[in-house]
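Ligand: protoporphyrin IX containing FE. Inputs:
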Amino acid sequence: MTKSKKDGVLHKKISRRQLLKMTGIGAAGLAIGATGIGGILSTIGKDWIAEDEAPPAKNSVNFYGDHQAGISTPSQTHIYFVALDVVVKTKSELQQLFKDWTPLATKMMRGEIIGTASTDMIPPKDTGEALGLDAQNLSLTFGVGESLFKKINLGDKKPTQLKKLPHFPKDQLVEAYSNGDICIQACADDPQVAFHAIRNLVRAASGRVTLKWSQAGFNAIAKKDGHSQTPRNLFAFKDGTENPRAKEDLNKVVWVQHGESKPWMTGGTYLIARRIQMHLETWDRTALDEQEATFGRHRNSGAPLGKDGEYDAMEIERKDEDGHLIVPNTSHVFLAKSVKARLLRRSYSYVSGVVDSTGTHDAGLLFISFQKDPQQFIDIQNSLGRLDKMNEYITHRGSAMFACFPGVRKGSYIGETLFSTL
Ligand code: HEM
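Predicted complex:
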């Protein structure tokens, strides 16, 4: 226990562990209501919680910072993505929801259980399926959708950038995989840890949110000489080679800078999720040459066509001796590169059983991109338009956009700026 002086008054700072002991929620336990530990912690003044006392946990991603985790964080091997609709009706109820989620999120990202029940006669506080596993690099990323602002009066907080995406050629979107008031992206190096996190957050919000849609996904990340390799998508191509990584690139492409959107979004970003079915059966009947011409890259190495290394410069204007473009102008990369806009892509493959009507795999890519302005995505998707050779092999089935809050400061809570900043 440490002491701090504030406003001339001596406050005792108490760690979470000490607090849990005092309130009896530790091993001995105390029955607590539906809002759980979050409810209790959020009703106690912030000065009373010394968040920074906890040493870094094994295989954990930092919850606090200028930006939320799970965006520029190196990709984990699994995702569980969920879109929720709110049942709460007022700004203060919504604010309380995010306050209640905060201590649960910090605990789970540290690989800790979220609490124990007081007796064997009531349901355990933590659903328990992650017991014995460490944090598995769990990251939790929260965002809000356009529809939330229609349901809850948040004044003029809705950013102009947060709106429905236009209809793109060949879109076959279904509402069952689209939109939502709130999103939570859980990524971890273990699928059960990712699912456990969402399950427990949704459970703690029982009666306040409903599940709209969700999608599990995976990425196999091979290691070479100790270095993580770019994961391959279900067409077997390396996916994520060209991505902004340096801090200055992220500031240019991903993080909203002061004055670029509503003030509460500074340090945040816009997330676009597209559930894209990939027609594997058609792809598997396609010759390797044709597959490589579809992307403009070699399949095995990931190198630009005509080059050797994955990270060699693409230079789409290169021509062969006969004056023909080496990277076809209908290839995915040629078209994506033809516009100035850039994105941070952080996608995961999915397999979700069988498409009833065709008897084919329901498999594809949960495409996720982060950008400081959704127009960046719109410009690229428009360029891919009808021309992209890859269109023969894919169908966009789901679509959603969320404004992701900036990072959480110690002592604060998820989404605080939405409620406090102008
Ligand atoms: C199932 C759907 C998709 C698949 C399988 C796919 C696959 C790929 C692959 C293999 C690459 C080359 C390697 C790399 O740089 O990562 C690539 C690059 C890229 N893709 Fe996609 N992609 C898909 C959808 C999209 C969508 C919807 C967008 C955005 C509207 C997009 C934007 C880009 C961009 C910006 C690049 C980098 C181009 C550059 O080199 O500058 N992709 N994609």
